[in-house]
């Protein structure tokens, strides 16, 4: 029986952080050696970082990556390690993975399939390696094979697929199978999206079954470069089963997942499947022998508690955004978060996430390790509890006017109190009046709600920005912007007012679902160690109807009255933006699907309103603070949904929709079916 002890590492890296990335890699290798791992897979581009963007064009990025690789080689005695990095071959840049064994570089495998959709832009920087092509790369006067190669460790053959290679139809795995490969390594940088971990598990398990091999999948962890979140989903499969999986959303520098693979059992399965052997292709031979004496322990695959609790999306949203906020805070070397806490759903969600970040961090690595990872913040040195940390790290300020209510003040104050955050209550009514009087004196008339509604609303939002920025600057904090994806779609915000901020953590989630999440966090909460972490201070905001509170109280202003029902807005946004449907197609869809929920006249007016607001507010979407990618659809104009700032405003399409709507209205009045 030939057994092999394998490992997959999830690394929390930062683009171009050469020393930090190298230290994380070396620490993970040393840990693997302590546990007698023989073959270890690290993530894609883990030396340089995955999100280097146009820095990949700099020759220094590849040059320093090779220097770091040579430093790491010295730590690979008696172990084989797959390490991702960019390389230059014949003045072309490739996304590559190097296999190092027993302090020797064996060769480089290059990525054959590059993602170039959604948030991916790899075709901008990298070349696609041609299958079955081999070349050489020279490092310090030594030449190493590069390209589509496999590695032979005294009879145990190892091949690679790099991330996207495994997600396409023309993947390398069938050719590796034809060459009798025993182990396939997959160094990946696969960003988080809701429920995506299930797809990964299926992909990895199916590959191990179809190709009769052990399959080792390593991924990145945390907020690597600002917008992308990596959940650290590392997997090992054999014979069609996941035999080991990492804990996701860890706050550690790395996680190590291990499993013993039975090579002989997989070979028996390979022998049952007919294929055409590929003879004479490049194989790199190593003198490092793989053979492990321990008997593999076959245990049923176990999911984390929160993955089987029935609230996967709620748990994933909480854990992904909290980890992203923590890494953003840590890597930007900021001292905390400042939030203009209005008491409404959006600012309360952002505040709750900051508080939850500390609770989940404590669950993951403990208070002392959490403080050690934030050691650049001197104010938290003596903090002993989550509440003491929150007091220093989370600053909230309620900025009320004469239009603000006692309900929103109570909502803001009680939430801040429930998580231990610092809370300030500032009245800005005088500032609003001063600005209003200043402009009135210049234009020679009074500003009134009858003639100047939007202007009088916007000045209240804008006056709030300087004060909260001042508090953020005083404390070296990140200012949190609080716009959600539904507001982003239609520009329901005040630029340089409520959009002010360094990071926008909920810009990737729609308002309709966010409100249900807040109720879940109040009443159910994250499942941690057989108990639930709740934030009961959310009960005040959950009892309120969303409102900007910018008009006088007698107007009874609400967001949905200003716009449309948030659930309907979200449906339209998905149809129009993600599925690229025209106004006519969108309306026909909703008038059929939603006819029991809403009046047809309302649905028509809302559809027209959505497209008009969408088309005229692209300039706002260009200026939003960076947000996090959370699913397979996003409105981020810099990395996902591109749309012209100046455009036709759907004039032609909306005229056709009007003809259709009015024609059907006339037919309905005449009693003609349609």
From TrEMBL:
Enzymatic reactions: deamido-NAD(+) + L-glutamine + ATP + H2O = L-glutamate + AMP + diphosphate + NAD(+) + H(+)
Domain CN hydrolase: from-to ranges: 4-263
Keyword ATP-binding: yes
Enzyme class, spelled out: ligase
Single GO MF annotation: NAD+ synthase activity
CDD domains for this protein: GAT_Gln-NAD-synth (cd07570), NAD_synthase (cd00553)
Active site: 44 (proton acceptor), 111 (for glutaminase activity), 163 (nucleophile)
InterPro entries in alphabetical order: C-N_Hydrolase (IPR003010), C-N_Hydrolase_sf (IPR036526), Gln-dep_NAD_synthase (IPR014445), NAD/GMP_synthase (IPR022310), NAD_synthase (IPR003694), Rossmann-like_a/b/a_fold (IPR014729)
Binding site for ATP: 482
Cited NCBIfam families: nadE
Family: Belongs to the NAD synthetase family. In the C-terminal section; belongs to the NAD synthetase family.
Protein name: Glutamine-dependent NAD(+) synthetase
Source organism of the structure: Lacihabitans lacunae
């Amino acid at each position: 029986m030939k057994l092999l002890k394998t490992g997959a590492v999830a690394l929390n890296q930062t683009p171009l952080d050469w020393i930090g990335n190298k230290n994380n890699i070396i620490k993970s290798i040393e840990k693997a050696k302590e546990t007698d791992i023989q073959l270890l897979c690290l993530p894609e581009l883990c030396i340089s970082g995955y999100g280097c963007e146009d820095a990949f064009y700099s020759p220094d990025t590849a040059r320093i990556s090779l220097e770091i690789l040579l430093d790491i080689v010295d730590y690979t005695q008696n172990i084989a390690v797959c390490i991702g990095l960019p390389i230059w071959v014949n003045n072309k840049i490739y996304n590559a993975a190097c296999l190092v064994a027993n302090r020797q570089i064996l060769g480089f495998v290059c990525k054959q399939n590059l993602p170039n959709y959604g948030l991916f832009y790899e075709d901008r920087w990298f070349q696609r390696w041609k299958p079955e092509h081999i070349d050489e790369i020279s490092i310090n006067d030594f030449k190493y094979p590069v390209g589509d190669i496999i590695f032979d460790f005294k009879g145990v053959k190892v091949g690679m697929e790099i991330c996207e290679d495994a997600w396409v139809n023309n993947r390398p795995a069938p050719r590796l199978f034809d060459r009798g490969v025993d182990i396939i390594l997959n160094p990946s940088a696969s960003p988080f999206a809701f429920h995506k971990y299930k797809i990964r598990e299926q992909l990895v398990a199916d590959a191990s079954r179809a190709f009769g091999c052990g399959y080792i999948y390593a991924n990145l962890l945390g907020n690597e470069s600002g917008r992308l979140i990596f959940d650290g989903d590392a997997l090992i499969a054999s014979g069609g089963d996941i035999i080991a999986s990492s804990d996701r959303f860890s706050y550690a520098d790395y996680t190590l997942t291990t499993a013993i693979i039975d090579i002989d059992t997989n070979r028996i399965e390979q022998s049952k499947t007919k294929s055409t052997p590929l003879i004479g292709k490049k194989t790199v031979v190593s003198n490092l022998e793989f053979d492990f004496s321990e008997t593999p322990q076959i245990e049923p695959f176990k999911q984390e508690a929160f993955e089987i609790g029935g609230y996967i999306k709620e748990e994933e949203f909480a854990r992904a955004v909290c980890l992203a906020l923590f890494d953003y805070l840590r890597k930007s070397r900021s001292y905390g978060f400042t939030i203009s806490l209005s008491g409404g759903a959006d600012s309360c969600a952002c505040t709750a996430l900051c508080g939850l970040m500390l609770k989940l961090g404590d669950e993951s690595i403990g208070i002392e390790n959490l403080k050690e990872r934030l050691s650049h913040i001197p104010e938290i040195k003596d903090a002993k509890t989550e509440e003491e940390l929150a007091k220093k790290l989370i600053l909230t300020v309620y900025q009320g006017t004469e239009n603000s209510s006692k309900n929103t003040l109570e909502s803001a104050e009680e939430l801040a109190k429930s998580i231990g955050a610092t809370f300030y209550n500032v009245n800005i009514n005088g500032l609003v009046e001063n600005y209003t009087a200043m402009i009135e004196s210049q234009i020679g008339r009074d500003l009134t709600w009858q003639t100047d509604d939007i202007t009088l609303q916007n000045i209240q939002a804008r006056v709030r920005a300087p004060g909260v920025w001042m508090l953020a600057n005083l404390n070296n904090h990140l200012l949190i912007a609080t716009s959600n994806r539904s507001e982003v779609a239609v520009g329901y915000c005040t630029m340089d007012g409520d959009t002010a901020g360094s990071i926008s953590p909920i810009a990737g989630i729609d308002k309709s679902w966010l409100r249900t999440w807040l109720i879940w966090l109040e009443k159910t909460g994250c499942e941690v160690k057989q108990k639930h972490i709740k934030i009961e201070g959310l009960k005040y905001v959950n009892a309120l109807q969303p409102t900007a509170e910018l008009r006088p109280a007698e107007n009874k202003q609400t967001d949905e009255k200003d716009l449309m029902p948030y659930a309907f807005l979200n449906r339209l946004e998905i149809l129009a933006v993600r599925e690229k449907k025209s106004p006519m197609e969108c309306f026909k869809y909703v008038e059929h699907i939603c006819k029991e929920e809403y009046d047809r006249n309302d649905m028509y007016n809302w559809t027209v309103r959505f497209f008009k607001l969408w088309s005229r507010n692209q300039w706002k979407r260009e200026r939003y603070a960076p947000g996090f990618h959370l699913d397979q659809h996003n409105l981020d104009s810099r990395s996902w949904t591109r749309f012209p700032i100046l455009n036709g405003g759907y004039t032609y399409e909306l005229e056709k929709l009007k003809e259709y709507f009015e024609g059907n209205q006339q037919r309905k009045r005449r009693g003609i079916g349609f």
